[in-house]
Amino acid sequence: MNVGIIIGRIGGVDGVALECEKWIEVLRSMGHSTYVLSGQFQERTMDPSTETLVPEMSFFSPESFWSQKKAFFYPETDPQELIDHLNLYSKVIYKKILNWISERKIDLIISENASALPSHLEMGLAISKVVNRSGIPTITHDHDFAWERGDRYVSPHKEINDFVAEVFPLRAANSVHAVINTHARNTLMERFHRDAVNVPNVMDFSKPFGERNSRNEELERHLGFKKDDLLLFQITRIVRRKGIGTAIRLVHELDDKKIKLVITGNYADDAGSAYYNELVNLIHELKAGDQVTFAHHLFHNKGLSGGNGEVRFSLSDAYARATACTYFSTYEGFGNAFVEAVLARRPIFVNNYEPVYVADIGSKGFKTVMIEHGILTEEAVRDMASVIYDPSLGREIAEHNFALGKMHFSYDTLREKLDELIGKAKGL
Question: Could you give the CA distance from residue 315 to residue 348 in angstroms, rounded to a whole number?
Answer without folding.
Answer: 16
